């Protein structure tokens, strides 16, 4: 007999949401895994999409026991020299080392920043939000402060505004301009794209070398009062704003 028949309608949370809150994947992806039999509840394969998990249930995903976790959101001001990944086979430093004391929840970085790049990096165990923020159609705005090896030609800034074609397709900046009060080697560029190394590739395409690259804004979040190498939890208001994107 199905456990669901003993549940009241208001009890528990849907299985796909439970999996998403455990940081495994988004709810939509969880539905797929449930359908193909990757999920067990109380040691039985569960393919019932509307099943609600209660505290006494034991949930397994591909043989791994899952625990319900409170959705957690941590913002890091990443220093250079750290890989934006959960682990590294070569034993190099990762961003997980920097947020190890932030929470016991299984948070993962949202998107990526390459090893030399500094700035804002969000972590969460909310699979739905992570998927949303990295989905191209969401169009999350990211603002970078770029320092280059030489003064930038104003015509090149115009080319970036109007759009250009790279090896993996066309790209167009949402905004780009010289940094006020700084040298002509410093540029601010806002993009909605999350493509790999996109800012560096834009300027390399135009003949510049990126000396430093710092992400100063991500999805409305800023580095205000967050020193390099430090982290903080998002406020309830910030989380709500992210979910409204």
Features of the shown structure:
245 residues, 4-stranded antiparallel sheet, Alpha-Beta Plaits, 9-stranded mixed sheet, Structural Genomics Hypothetical 15.5 Kd Protein In mrcA-pckA Intergenic Region, Chain A, elongated, 3 domains, Pseudouridine synthase, alpha+beta, 17 strands
Describe this structure in words.
The chain has 7 helices and 17 strands. By secondary structure, it is α+β, with helices and mostly antiparallel strands. A hairpin with a 2-residue loop joins β2 (39-41) and β3. It starts with 12 loop residues before the first strand and ends with a helix. Mean pLDDT is 91; it is low at 1-10.
Largest sheet features = 9 strands, mixed
Strand content: 25-35%
The percent of residues in helical segments reads 10-25%
| Shape by Cα distribution | elongated
The total domain count is 3
Indicate the CATH architecture of the largest domain: 2-Layer Sandwich
Structural class: alpha+beta
Gap from first CA to last CA = 42 Å
The tally of strands reads 17
With helices defined by DSSP (H or I, 4 residues minimum), what is the helix count?
7
What is the H/E order?
A: EHHEEEEEEHEEHEHEEEEHEEEH
User: What would CATH call the class of the largest domain?
Assistant: Alpha Beta
- The parts where pLDDT drops under 50 for at least 5 residues are 1-10
């Amino acid at each position: 007999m199905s456990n669901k028949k003993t549940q009241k309608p208001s009890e528990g949370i849907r299985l796909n949401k439970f999996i998403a809150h455990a940081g495994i994947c988004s709810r939509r992806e969880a539905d797929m895994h449930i359908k193909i039999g990757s999920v067990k509840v109380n040691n039985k394969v569960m393919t019932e999409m509307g099943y609600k998990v209660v505290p006494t249930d034991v949930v397994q995903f591909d043989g791994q026991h899952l625990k319900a976790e409170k959705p957690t959101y941590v913002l890091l001001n990443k220093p250079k020299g750290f890989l934006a990944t959960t682990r590294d086979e070569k034993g190099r430093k990762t961003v997980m080392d920097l947020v190890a004391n932030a929470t016991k929840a299984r948070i993962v970085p949202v998107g990526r920043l390459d090893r030399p790049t500094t700035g804002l990096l969000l972590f969460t165990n909310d699979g739905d939000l992570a998927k949303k923020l990295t989905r191209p159609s969401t169009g999350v705005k990211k603002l970078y402060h770029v320092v280059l090896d030489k003064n930038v030609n104003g015509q090149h800034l115009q080319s970036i505004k109007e759009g250009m074609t790279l090896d993996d397709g066309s790209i167009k900046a949402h905004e780009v301009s010289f940094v006020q009060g700084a040298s002509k080697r410093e540029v601010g560029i806002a993009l909605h794209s999350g493509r790999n190394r996109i800012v560096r590739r834009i300027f390399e395409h135009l003949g510049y070398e990126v000396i430093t690259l710092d992400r100063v804004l991500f999805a409305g979040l800023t580095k205000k009062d967050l020193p390099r190498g430090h982290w903080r939890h998002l406020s309830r208001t910030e989380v709500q704003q992210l979910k409204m994107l």
